[in-house]
Amino acid sequence: MPINYQQAYQQIKDIGAGATERRKRKEQAQQLARKLLASFNSELEFLRSKVDSAKQADSNIRCAVPLDEKLASHYPAPASAFQATLIAADGSQIVPNRHEALQYYVINVGAIAMQIGSGNTPEVETDTELHLLDEFDDTYFSDSQVALQRDVAERKKLLEMSEKYSGTVVALTEGQLELWGSIDNENAREFEKSLNDYLHTLEEMRQKRIIAGGYVDKPGANWVVKLLEVAETPQDELKNIRKNRPLAGVTDLWLFGQLLGRHERSAVFALQAKSAEKYKGALAIHFFYINVGDAKHPKIARVDVPLWVAEDPSMLNDLHSVLVGQSMIMGHAPFPYALHRAHEIAVVTHLEKEEIDRLLSRDILSSGGELGEKSGKQSAKDLKGRTRR
Q: Residue 199, SS3?
């Protein structure tokens, strides 16, 4: 059956009818955000104390923590060019599908190393890991577990490729620096193992003085806005801080789109989050915002960095310069070119999955093994002439 457009049309009309009121509420919240930013701009000690109090009231609070820069600080891109090796990695995966005859997953990591200013041809590598789920051991393997292994594999690939280069090395992945994944009884042990591998890799990067970063395009987290809400909330109401949303509708994306001019970066903040407490000492997660667009058409990204990068002005400047230069390559759609290329290298196509299915089936059968059965649902999907999955 097609979409019931009669029902959808009425819902669309209802949404449209409320657009003016939602816009008015959003503009009021934005006006308050500007006021709070101006009021607390230099009140750094007060803000840090207030975040500590909020943490005591709600240990799960996630927000920015100011360091020693004013909230509205903004810095131009370094003018001088420099030579560095930029390594970017991205990952793609095939996740297990219980409806298929073969139960397996694939993690494919693509990486590119570019020696900026050298004129040398970039080096490209791909690592592919295929794991067949064993019916005697692997009773369940979730999409989130595959994603965890992919994220760790990306950072390990950066470290591996960095061994070939001397001098300044910038290592980038797309997405946040914090390893993310749901922690429940099914995958808690797997998450802890992945996290330990990840932290060990970051520590090796620190020892090699690699400039590590996670580039978050169009960020959805509103950690600085939440900091302003924490600042505005009375002390005795902090226990309800996650429900207290005077700035609902205001985003960090909008806020720094107002603050940052062409190619500028923001102040550096620490991240207050219970899940980030495992990143200790020099591995502690920090972040800043950057406008890789211009003043008229800002393109705001968040850049996550560990403390060893955050506390080193020369590393910050090098990272800032690389991100601006890389994004300019992409023209009217600014995004780090090396990350774009890493994604192209890593992506697994549907045809490639079909070829893996074919080769895996052939080898299992020729070795005397047996295949599972497709579900009826999958068999129906695979009928010729079907256009939807």
A: helix
Interatomic CA distance for residues 323 and 215, integer angstroms: 9
pTM of the model: 0.91
Residues 6+ apart with CB under 8 A from 164: 113, 123
CA dist 302 and 268 (Å) reads 10
List the chain domain ranges. Answer: 74-346
CB 213 within 8 A of CB 177: yes
Rounded CA separation 213/319 (Å): 8
Q: Do 316 and 322 form a contact (C-beta atoms < 8 A)?
A: no
Q: To which residue do tokens 């950072």 refer?
A: 155
Instruction: Give 74-100 pLDDT, tens digit per residue.
Output: 999 987 667 899 999 999 999 888 788
Q: What is the DSSP letter of 278?
A: G
For helices 19-40 and 223-232, the axis angle rounded to 10 degrees is: 70
Region of 66 (left: φ > 0; alpha: ψ -120 to 50; beta: rest) is beta
CATH class (in words) of the domain with range 74-346: alpha beta
Beta strands in 133-230 (DSSP E): 169-174, 211-217
Q: Find out whether 276 and 285 touch, Cβ atoms under 8 Å.
A: yes
